[in-house]
């Protein structure tokens, strides 16, 4: 990755845009969209590649993104499929589970020529595994991965929509992998890791997938960053959890932006953990959080 503090950063996020439907209300969501919104709030020009249906939910997503200055030039509109909707269930600890409608418009992102130039010029390209559940979007992603210069995989495993084969392929192509602790364990086992420790499994995946940068989140207990052969740790910030929806997405967005801006890995990790905690302490995936609020929270 080329660290460049001077030019204005621009990032492309690829994948699901949808409405998270909670028992009493709905909130905008989709992991790559959550990343795009948070990066944008941190001052990075972000473009979303996705697809919505020709319906009210789709119009609402487009206007939300436009209001928040996330470019929608590459959000396709289809008459054949509905805009994505996800039923979100929150348990007593604030942890979420998802019922993700299929097929949704974002399963059908078609490859176009102008996307190639957009992606090849971007400082970073963010994608996840859920978007691979349908062949149309998966092939488009595969094509774009060959163009992107810094590829960030946010695994975001959503059962039953992934296979170890697809995951391994995505990890092999990625320059940076983000997992949570459960995902690390699951993937290490699937890949026949002989280890039990966190660090050994991270190194194992790094070697197997030829990836120098891996970050693993640990919920309330912070995160571990393996960055060019060194480990960095943050043990978490205390927050009363409202719901964990999108906390990992905002964490990743913040971490990547800080690293791209040339901050030290440790400082970038600390800042990202604080943002993740603040999101978990608010409703939905995309609460507004100011720089002032983050700094104040980190001083507690
Ligand atoms: O992307 C699938 C689901 O995961 C989330 O992004 C949270 O990480 C939700 O907003 C969405 O419904």
Automatic annotation (TrEMBL):
PANTHER family, sorted: CARBOHYDRATE KINASE PFKB DOMAIN-CONTAINING PROTEIN, HEXOKINASE FAMILY MEMBER
Domain Carbohydrate kinase PfkB: 15-287
Chain segments annotated as transmembrane: none
UniProt signal peptide: none
A family per Pfam: PfkB
Residues forming coiled coils: none
Family according to the record: Belongs to the carbohydrate kinase PfkB family.
Keyword terms, alphabetized: Kinase, Transferase
GO molecular function: kinase activity
InterPro entries, A to Z: Carboh/pur_kinase_PfkB_CS, PfkB_Carbo_kinase, PfkB_dom, Ribokinase-like
Domain of life: Bacteria
Protein name, per record: Fructokinase
Organism name: Flavobacterium glycines
């Amino acid at each position: 990755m080329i660290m460049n503090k001077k030019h204005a950063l621009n990032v492309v996020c690829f994948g699901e845009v949808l409405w998270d439907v909670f028992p009493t209300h709905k909130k905008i969501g989709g992991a790559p969209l959550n990343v795009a919104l948070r990066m944008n709030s941190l001052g990075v020009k972000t473009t979303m590649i996705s697809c919505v249906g020709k319906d009210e939910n789709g119009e609402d997503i487009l206007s939300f993104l436009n209001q928040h200055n996330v470019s929608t030039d590459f959000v396709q509109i289809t008459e054949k499929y509905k805009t994505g909707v996800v039923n979100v269930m929150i348990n007593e600890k604030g942890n979420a589970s998802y019922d993700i409608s299929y097929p949704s418009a974002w399963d059908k992102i078609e490859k176009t020529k102008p996307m190639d130039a957009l992606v090849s010029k971007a400082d970073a390209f963010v994608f996840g595994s859920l978007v691979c559940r349908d062949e149309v979007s998966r092939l488009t992603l595969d094509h774009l991965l060959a163009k992107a210069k810094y590829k960030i995989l946010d695994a975001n495993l959503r059962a039953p929509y992934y296979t170890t084969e697809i995951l391994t392929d995505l990890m092999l192509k990625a320059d940076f992998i983000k997992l949570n602790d459960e995902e690390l364990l699951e993937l290490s086992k699937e890949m026949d890791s002989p280890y039990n420790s966190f660090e050994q499994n991270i190194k194992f995946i790094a070697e197997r997938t030829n990836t120098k940068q891996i970050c693993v989140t640990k919920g309330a207990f912070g995160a571990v960053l393996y960055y060019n052969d060194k480990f960095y740790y943050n043990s978490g910030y205390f927050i009363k959890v409202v719901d964990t929806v999108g906390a990992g997405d905002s964490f990743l967005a913040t971490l990547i932006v800080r690293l791209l801006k040339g901050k030290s890995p440790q400082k970038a990790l600390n800042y990202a953990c604080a943002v993740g905690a603040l999101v978990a302490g608010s409703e939905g995936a995309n609460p507004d959080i100011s720089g002032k609020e983050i700094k104040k929270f980190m001083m507690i």
